[in-house]
Amino acid sequence: MCYAIPGRVETIEDRYVTVDYFGEKKRAINELDGLKIGDYIYAQGGFVIQSLPEPEAKSILAVWKETFFELQEMDLRLSRLDTESKGVDAKTLRILDKAAEGRELKPEELYHLITLETPYERELLYKTANFLRRKYLGNSCCVHGIIEFSSFCKRNCHYCGISTNHTGLKRYRMTDDEILDAVREAVEVHGFQALVLQSGEDPEFSAPKLAELIREIKRRHHCLIFISVGEIGIDGLKELYDAGARGILLRFETSDPELYAKLHPGSLLETRLEHLRKAFEIGYLIVTGGLIGLPGQTPRDILNDILLAKELHAEMFSFGPFVPHPDTPLAGNNTPDVELILGTLAAARIADPENAKILVTTAFETVDPGAREKGLMAGANSVMLNVTPERFRECYEIYPNRAHSHEGIPEQIETTLSLLRGLGRAPTDLGV
Ligand code: SAH
Q: DSSP labels for 9-63?
């Protein structure tokens, strides 16, 4: 999925191509040999993933054409910024007007938005974020798949249910064949074009072993691979990039070094940030963010988290609520308020209106079944579906009762597509 619409290559300059989609031009990085002007391609996350024969592309485009414009129109209708501003104070209005014009807000102004209290004001914040999402990025919504291939982890993060200290957890480690089969099903049966491979920090999956796996996936399939295996080391990052990984999902969890050290005994925020900085230098697409509602975290921390994600060149912001797990040191704490979660997504959109993909996380869906729609109407434009074989999912218990754990892949796809259709969104990724 991410049913990327085929596009036609218009120009080629070194590694960059311009691609036409029904008149819209997008740029993408090409790593395919022999690509020519006039070829039809699929792009994901700004990378050309594969080319396809012209007749096939044309028949897909014929099916898409009408829907493409219909969805855009519906999105336009749903994301209008009406001038209704009942109950909104003058300062808030001024800041949101400035945001709607696409002007950069000062940190204090963003902070003001995160801490808005009245329902009218928050409503206008979400609408402004949604307006900006459409204005700059149109109606495309990324739908990536995630495969959680091992729940073994050597770390002891205080919030996490697969922490090494959770000795009661039934753990699993998928074999290479099981992973390759899960990838095959996601890509060949269900049409996913971007996959995240996630695990705990499992010493069994060394960088060379992961590299071999990624190389094999790239030999067999056309898809964009994101790694999410924790701190694999700077050499490991290079090795996995060389093997064909092009994205990394690595949250810094919190931008407050003290809170970080408290929640991750023996680890430093700086090490994690070093990975993210190096990953960007190497060329990875960066997906990062933090946990919302950690005990001891303040709204000021959340502002700093958003600013840090931007500074780290996040191409996708991944911010989700902390959900307490009963077998961790943070058991007994509360999940954050839904408005704080939505406010974070909206503020992230306003902080990076033109480029960011903003994810509605499964954790958010776990604390609020209406999260996807709410998030997508508050600036978000990305979701991830769990394509781990169902028999393993319960054991990847980072927190309990994760949303969609018991839904098969076709069911998840169907509900996602129908939600997106209803909101005028297209499950596509048209490149940069
Ligand atoms: N080993 C990888 C993947 C970790 S699990 C890594 O280090 O990046 C993926 C994410 O789950 C973590 O980054 C964390 O933000 C989130 N997570 C863990 N425990 C959680 C909890 N109790 N509530 C919400 N999210 C949690």
A: EEEEETTEEEEEETTEEEEEE---TT--TT-EEEEETTEEEEEE-HHHHHHHHHH
